[in-house]
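User: Please fill in residues for this 455-position structure.
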């Protein structure tokens, strides 16, 4: 259960380090309360926890933005589960003095996110920080009767939770959706897991959302977002929030940083519930991006990658590894699927902008053209109507008499209809490239042709 503890990446104006606080062990049936046992067992078959359990990793982002050093949540300390409480040691091992933290942001007040607030002498571990928390979250947990609103077996957390919040009351700022924690770091309201649960969106690129516990598990939350989680305060609201966040992340290609995904918790949302199968099964070329920034919740894509390799083995499609530099493909999760890239295409960055897509598509141009030519030839044979080069048609028209000219024009009209049919078949039938682990999940042949190749 060991994990690296100092994963770094940049996003917009922010330098981000993800630190591990260990992991939280929970019953699988608790985090997926209405899941059919057989389906739950199948969904978790590839996880690293025993069959009846899930291990919720603890990924704590530390963001340097200008003069600010912003910590998102403080972990559990050694007060909740023995497998937690690694944050403080990992901060110091990474050369970060807790006293240098300028802002501490609390996504919500569950023990695994809050109870690392105080040292054994009940002094603040981050003594120089300003603290930020949702106003509704604070009001909920600090209410005198909050225990009566919680399940019986969770009421014991209230005294420690209120003590930790009480310790920061003189330096706390209450925030709501749309407020900024620092330049380019905005609050998103994501209620349900707790009444005032917050996520955070960072400017830059196609966007980055720190989800906290709005999305809690790398398999269950993605593949079965409607399964009820026993940790959620209001299951119905939590499900609505989870589905909306996954849909937005998938549609807009927004990068996610999840607190409970496998370390370091970064990656992209994929199409849920088999919506991607149609494209995967019809693709001629399957682009497989290999990067050190691969989706942390990679279990969501293992099935699709295995299906891609099956189609290649059956000579139904070609899998093309594309290495995003700097990256060693042997260090990526693809190695376990035996995706070897002797003909891999190197690119300098993720293809989330037009110029990067142009780089990829130019590299794939020969493969693309071969597919288009084959499809065109097959359709022409099916319609018994081979096309004629325009210059040949023009020559025959110049030499033809009136009767022959009418025949040629009729042929041209018929030929035009055939060409329309060919274009329609290509546009409607062929998903030329499928991209498994990247937010822009597919490109149709017509898009490639019009935007990148015909030019």
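Assistant: Residues filled in for all 455 positions:
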């Amino acid at each position: 259960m060991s994990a690296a503890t100092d994963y770094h990446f940049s996003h917009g104006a922010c330098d981000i380090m993800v630190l591990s606080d260990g992991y939280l062990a929970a019953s699988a049936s608790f985090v997926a309360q209405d899941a059919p046992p057989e389906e739950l067992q199948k969904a978790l078959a590839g996880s690293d926890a025993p069959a009846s359990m899930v291990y919720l990793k603890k990924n704590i982002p530390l963001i340097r933005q200008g003069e600010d050093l912003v910590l998102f949540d403080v972990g559990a300390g050694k007060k909740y589960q023995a497998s937690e409480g690694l944050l403080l040691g990992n901060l110091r091992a990474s050369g970060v003095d807790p006293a240098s933290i300028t802002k501490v942001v609390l996504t919500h007040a569950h023990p695994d996110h809050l109870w690392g607030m105080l040292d054994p002498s009940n002094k603040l571990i981050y003594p120089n920080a300003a603290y930020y928390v949702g106003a509704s979250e604070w009001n909920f947990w600090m209410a005198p009767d909050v225990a009566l609103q919680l399940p019986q077996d969770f009421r014991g957390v209230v005294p420690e939770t209120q003590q930790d919040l009480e310790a920061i009351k003189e330096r706390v700022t209450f925030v709501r959706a749309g407020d900024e924690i620092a330049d380019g770091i905005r609050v998103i309201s994501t209620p349900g897991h707790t009444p005032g649960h917050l996520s955070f969106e960072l400017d830059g690129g196609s966007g980055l959302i720190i989800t906290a516990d709005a999305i809690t598990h790398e398999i269950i939350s993605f593949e079965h977002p409607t399964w009820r989680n026993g940790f959620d305060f209001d299951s119905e609201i939590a499900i609505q929030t989870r589905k909306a966040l996954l849909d937005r992340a998938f549609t807009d290609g927004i990068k996610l940083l999840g607190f409970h995904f496998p370390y370091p918790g970064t990656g992209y949302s994929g199409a849920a519930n088999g919506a991607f199968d149609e494209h995967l099964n019809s693709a001629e070329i399957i682009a497989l991006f290999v990067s050190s920034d691969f989706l942390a919740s990679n279990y969501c894509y293992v099935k699709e990658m295995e299906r891609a390799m099956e189609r290649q083995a059956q000579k139904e499609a070609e899998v093309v590894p594309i290495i995003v530099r700097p990256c060693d493909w042997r260090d990526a999760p693809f190695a376990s699927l035996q995706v070897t890239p002797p003909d891999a295409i190197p690119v300098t960055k993720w293809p989330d902008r037009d110029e990067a897509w142009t780089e990829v598509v130019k590299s794939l141009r020969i493969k693309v053209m071969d597919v288009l030519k084959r499809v065109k030839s097959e359709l022409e044979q099916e319609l018994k109507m081979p096309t004629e080069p325009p210059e040949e048609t023009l020559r025959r028209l110049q030499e033809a008499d009136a009767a022959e000219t009418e025949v040629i024009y009729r042929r041209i009209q018929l030929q035009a209809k055939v060409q329309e049919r060919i274009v329609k078949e290509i546009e409607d039938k062929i998903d030329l490239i499928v991209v498994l682990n990247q937010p822009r999940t597919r490109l149709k042949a017509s898009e490639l042709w019009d935007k990148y190749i015909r030019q």
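For context: The chain has two domains: 7-268, 274-455.
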